[in-house]
Amino acid sequence: MEPKTSTLSPQTAEAEKNKFVVSALNGTGLYVLAYYLVWALHESVKVLASRHFHLRGLWNPSRVVYTLSDNEWWRTAVVTVYGIGPLACLVLGLVVFRWYWRSERASRGQRKLLLLWIAFHACNAVFGALLADTFTHSGSWYVFDWLFRMGNVVNVVMALLAGLVQLSLGYFGAIAFLQAHDSKTVMRYSNRQKMVVSTLAAPWLAGSLFIMLLKMPYLTIQEALHLAMMALLLIPMGLACMNEVFSDTVKRPQATRMAWGIIGLAVVLAVVWRLALSPPIAFS
């Protein structure tokens, strides 16, 4: 049986609306902050591997671009430099999610939600990115193309499997996401649609738009597709949240208020990323 709903007074309704607006803004800050933390790891280990193999390239705000001709590449270098970033993100995602599940989900505050967004971005940097890169024949697509040498059919199958994994992880991650919220108002089952919009859809759309704007004019189709592939994780998660009647939260939840520290840190990190990599950094 679904929980009963009740009519709210105008003052209560306005206060409730403000909580969802605050949740959306905080969620956007967490989304952006987690994105830059994950991709800083992804790109930095890629550049380090490239320097190890003495590969020439440029690191710009959107991606790492190589200035080598096709005949200067060899199999080990390709598999390593295009595979080490997703591998590092996979390890990060597993470690962070384990940290969240074992130690943080019953805690108060925003840290547990930040850990989850890091895990989500790490997941997308592996599975979503592979599907996106297969469309553009770039990035992690090179790993399977050079590793197996079995043609585009196998590459497409691997990409589709990665997409299915991301969809499945999104669906089964709904309970973990629900447990990451403190607010009793946000967690109330009668507000579940508002919750999904304010804590999943709004952070993804607003955060992705902010990230893309900060990367102009270096933004590529590949990078835009990476951000779009988060939908494969968040849409099934949102649908599962809508169907899940779980509405418990911590015993002494914190009041819903603006997390200015997180929002400010996200903006600063995004600006520093843009300024540090514009003009692009050359390596060899």
TrEMBL record:
It comes from the Bacteria. Keywords: Membrane, Transmembrane, Transmembrane helix. The chain crosses the membrane at residues 20-41, 79-101, 113-132, 152-178, 199-218, 224-246, 258-276. This is Uncharacterized protein. It comes from Hymenobacter glaciei.
